[in-house]
Write a structure and sequence with these properties.
By secondary structure, this protein is of the alpha+beta class. The chain contains 2 helices and 4 strands; from the N terminus they run E-H-E-E-H-E. The protein has one domain: TT1725-like (Alpha-Beta Plaits), CATH 3.30.70.1120. About 40% of the residues lie in helices and about 40% in strands. Strands 2-3-1-4 form a 4-stranded antiparallel β-sheet, with helices on one face. The longest helix has 19 residues.
């Protein structure tokens, strides 16, 4: 069994309030959960209006497949949202 996750720090462009940030984050979380079958949650920097830390996780039996799904989710976030990935940390067990 493979447990894999990634913690992503995002800079959200054109977000000037927590309400705008929440809208973007909820959209990202729903989309990645539905399209890539990942567990997702906002895990840090909740009080800042233009920065967020999101965690994504997956459980499977193939390490490469898990990694590809997480990488695909990260690519999709950068391509479809007005955000920049500042940092990410891989977690594997």
């Amino acid at each position: 069994m493979v447990l894999m996750g990634v913690e992503v720090t995002l800079l959200i462009f054109d977000s000037y309030s927590l309400k705008e940030k929440r809208s973007v984050i909820k959209s990202i979380l729903r989309r990645t959960e539905n399209r890539h079958h990942l567990a997702a949650a906002e895990v840090g920097d909740m009080e800042l209006h233009n920065k967020a830390v999101i965690g994504f996780g997956i459980v499977g039996n193939d390490r490469m497949l898990c990694r590809r799904r997480l990488e695909a989710a990260l690519r999709e976030i950068e391509e479809n949202y007005e955000v920049e990935i500042l940092d990410f940390n891989w977690i594997e067990a």
